[in-house]
Amino acid sequence: MTDPISGGSSPPPQFPSTDAWAQALGLEILEWGExxxxxxxxxxxxxxxxxGVLHGGVYxxxxxxxxxxxxxxxxxxxxxxxxxxxxxxxTDFLRSHSHxxxxxEGVPLHQGRSAEIWEVRIxxxxxxxxxxxxxxxxxLQQTPASRNAETQTGTGEVSR
Length: 160
Known about the structure:
This protein is of the alpha+beta class. It has helices at 20-25, 56-77, 144-151, and strands spanning 28-32, 37-43, 83-93, 100-111, 115-124, 129-140.
């Protein structure tokens, strides 16, 4: 596999071990670049709402996760930003789904200096679209964690 940033060979991409939510969902990354992210979920009873179909929050979480990884890689690969912060997630549920593979593909609709917008389409194994969404991101010049570290006082309190 070719790394989309360096152009060199790299192992198959994985969500970081610190992404407990993607792991809890069972989301698997297939491709992770600055202009496209693909992920897979094998849907099952652990994702169901009481009517036996996928909970809408599963779709919204997939959209948010896929778009976040794409937008984050996009801005950081340019060396002009520290990351992104999602400010809006709009997810549409188009068809019900209960079991089996879902593929999510995210692509940028807008990549600007201060904002990015990504669209994610989720399809089932027959190619039919089951959900789509878009996430708007604010491009961060500094992450909250690094900002908090800089404002720590000697007493362990964060100055405001």
